[in-house]
Design brief:
The structure is a single chain. The N and C termini lie far apart (66 Å). The longest helix has 24 residues. The chain contains 3 helices and 4 strands. Helix 1 packs parallel to helix 2. The chain is α+β, with helices and mostly antiparallel strands. The model has no long low-confidence stretch (mean pLDDT 83). Helices cover 37% and strands 28% of the residues. A 4-stranded mixed beta sheet has the order 1-2-3-4, covered by helices on one side.
Length: 123
């Protein structure tokens, strides 16, 4: 599993990097088929002071891409909210993967072939 953390318009301190790694560990613990996690932390030039910090997380799992984005006044709060959103998405995806409602075509029993006489309607 690859973890990529990048920052736009802000410096990534070791404390922020460690915090993100701890939070992302929760996602990996719930679902072990994670291929890549990309975290983008940014400082937006928004007029709304309460929503300047942005945390965006993309998780690539087998056959799907999960995305969560959150804005907050504090970067740590934005990371928490994005991880919470992503955790719900991962648990939903895990339930879909583990729920074997759809049977594969190779496990279906073929129906008996219809002969020409049975296919014609009675006249």
């Amino acid at each position: 599993m690859n973890l990529q953390i990048s920052g736009h318009h802000l410096d990534l301190t070791p404390a922020i990097r460690r915090y993100v790694e701890e939070k992302v560990e929760r996602i990996k613990r719930h679902f072990d088929q994670v291929i890549q996690i990309e975290v983008i932390l940014a400082l937006e030039a928004s007029a709304d002071k309460d929503r300047r910090q942005r945390a965006e997380i993309n998780v690539r799992v087998k056959g799907d891409l999960l995305h969560a984005e959150s804005y907050a006044q504090n970067l740590y709060a934005a990371i928490d909210a994005a991880v919470d959103k992503l955790d719900r998405q991962v648990s939903t995806h895990k339930g879909k993967v583990q729920h074997h409602q759809n049977v594969a075509a190779k496990h279906l029993h073929p129906e008996e072939p219809i002969t020409g006489e049975e296919a014609l309607p009675d006249s």
